[in-house]
Sequence to fold (342 residues):
Amino acid sequence: MECGIIAKANISKLIDAVKKKAVFYAPVNGKTGVEFKEVDGKQEIAFDYSNSKIPPKKFLFPQCELLLRFKDNNLTDTPLNTEKAIIFGLRPCDTKSFLYLDKAFGDTYGKYDDPYYRARRGNVLFVSMACNNPCKTCFCTTVGSHPADTAGSDIIAYDLGSELLLEATTPGGDEFLKTNSGLFDKIKDSHRKEKDKKINAALEKMKKFDIDGLKQKIDAVFLDEVWQEIVDGCLGCGICTYLCPTCYCFDVTDEKKSSGEGVRVRTWDSCQYSLFTYHTSGHNPRNNKTKRMRQRIMHKFSYTVDNFEDTYCVGCGRCIRGCPVNLDIREKLQKLNKVNVE
Ligand code: SF4
Ligand code: SF4
Fold:
């Protein structure tokens, strides 16, 4: 596969080459920290960031999405978004999360096929940026990943200081690098050594804990009182699910004006909200925070294993950093994994 070196100072040339054919999104410093925005080469890309507050899942699964318009009984579909885009500089955990969203929306598992998601998915190229400085809250190695995981990436980039080393990992990434090969220099042994040094240093910073057998444990303790300890202190604000790159629950709402015109929109939803499972009968099967927190953990560490053969957590640590009362999923998982089941 194609690979090459580019000086960070020359990234604007790459953006110039790309923007004739596609939109280039990259991490930049915004009002609320690092966020992914369209860049045209003039902005400063945030290379040395830990991770964005809001995950890049919005590129394929927007927080609020117009599905259709209606007037009385007449429906008008909204055109599918087929914008060609390069998502540059996302962390490997976030890129990997799209493989999980693919199973839920993108037909890779042969169960569900969401045309809105799939239209965007087919036009996106992911250029991941390996982590040199994982956050203290990151635990990707615990959930089967690592700071330079290439899962889901078309190209992986390594930050070597003033230069970036890029390696293609898919035919699409290969073609991209070949098309723009004039902007890249050849990789030397010294570059490879520097790359390995940085990734090994990042790995040394990662703290791994044991979740082997967790699914069997949580399946067995579904009715145990341990869940009351797990939820202790939780406000039910839903931030942990909103910020999670693998959470994909949504609500569909019709908004109608008195004129009869209206829109149908899809918005992110959260299993931590009391109305999430509220039935029209008035019954609510998850009528307290304990059941809702149990659902969040069971969904990620048991139900998705049954349904999609994967644990739906990439260890990004956002739910830990974002929780207003400092609840830490790592502690919860370790506590659950220590429960005695006989
Ligand atoms: S962010 Fe924290 S307080 Fe809010 S729902 Fe999640 S665990 Fe509970
Ligand atoms: S559960 Fe927490 S650590 Fe795991 S992917 Fe979601 S936000 Fe990241």
Residues 14 and 177 are 10 Å apart (CA to CA). The chain is about 30% helix and 20% strand. Residues 214-337 form one domain.
